[in-house]
Amino acid sequence: LRRQRQMCIRDRKKTTIMRNKILKLAFRFSAFAFAVGMTGCDALDLAPIDTYGSGNFWTRKEHVIAYMDGIHKNFRDQIFQQQYVLGEARGGTSVPDVAVDGTSVSYQGIVNQALNAESPGITNFGNIYGCIANINIMLQKTLEADYMTEEEKAYYLGQAYGLRAFYYFGLYRTYGTLPLRLDPNPVVNGDFNPNNLYMKRSAGSEVMKQIKADLKSSLDYFGNNNSFDPNNRKNLKGYWSKAATEYLAAEVYLWNAKVSVDDNTANNADLSVAKNHLQSLMNNYDLSLQSNYEDIFSVNNKGNNEVIFAVRYMEGEASNPFTALMYNYQTGAFKTVGFNDENGKPMGDTLKVSTTGMQRIEYLPEFYLSYDKTDSRRDATFLGAYSRKDNSLAGTVYKKIMGHFDESINRYIWDADVIVYRLAGVYLMMAEIANMEGGDVASYINKIRERAYGKNWDATKYGYTNGNFTENELAILHEKDKEMLGEGQRWYDLKRMTLTKGGKHLVFCPEGSKDGQKAILTEAEAYKLYWPIETNMITKDPELTQTPGY
Fold it and tell me: Is 401 in contact with 485 (CB distance < 8 Å)?
């Protein structure tokens, strides 16, 4: 037996060495890959006694729940990249060089569209395939689970298919064509042939077909389960739900109705599908707009009736990355640099952050200046910094999703949730569909504006009146700028929305830029609609080809 153990240990070491080499070729796994155990030397049962050890995992319902929690942790790790880096940085939102506090801003290459195979902005497909690999494992193991009823499994399968559709849709909008891995990585199931790890890019039509298939599977498994918290875990809309799948489906079908990608031609018929999902969200989930804009993001009002899906942050746990990575500014520095508020009063540490950080990202002043002073969204979104010389606007600080100041410890806590989907987005998508159909755009825009102006609301003064297609489309874009800045929308909006019906996308039109002077991309730069892949990845994978144009 001793000899057999020694041989087994030696074989395991060889297997480990081989696996490590092959895993360098495979897509990266994230923290929850611990659930996958090595299978070498079955003669001995070497599984640890620990219930959550690799040899004993996937034997109880609690394991499925824990793994899904891990998948949501993966999502939280991705949210800054998903919303700012992929969804906004290239959308003409940000100061391209130096912030108001004198700091050289981050992501300059992305903001300035200076991407190439050597400096692609993001590498390794943004590590999104690691998240997808974990979902693929979840799907396989949950479908195989004989320790759960079909009804118990359905909720988690609905979540998994919805989240996979989310990731693939993000990759589709980012790269156009891309590898489709729908089964767990071959290494997970004991296939150590490196040739099976290489994958070519699937055509745009194949990717969109799969995204739609995953959305259907998600909705089928959720069935009539419209609850945001069916297991009473007090998640405050921090877990994927049927409503989240419906919101994503509306985004997918609206995109596919207006945007052609590779061999996948825009299909106007998809507008009606998007519209059905949006109507369902308005009617079937007890959603309503908050009466006060600032309350949407308040740490004392998490999971409110406007929220559909959010990424959860709590004091003592992970901090909101939008403040930790983007807005970790030192407003105390205003005392030294010398800024006023708009009324000419010198500012100190107005936001009470007292950090030694620097403002690594700043939105263009045009976004701040586009608000009326009576629009509550302006001061809920920005802190304006004004020059002491002439009281002109010097710059801004984004403050919509910061957190709260804890008086008991005299410290700021970065615990605001990052909201992924909310009802205001539903109304603005409905406005865009109405514009395509020749319907009433103003009614949806004015729902949003009336809340924004609150007691100052005057329909005659601030209300929108339906115009022609171009006027409506630009009004929707500008309303989203005011309502949803920082929520990962603008780059995708410019790529989807058009100046005329079926015409040029706003990313190629001066009207799409915030100052209205210069288009984000010229038509000669159309290849930049999609991101390049780094040379190193293409060198390692003979099946992978570069994004056209790079």
Answer: no
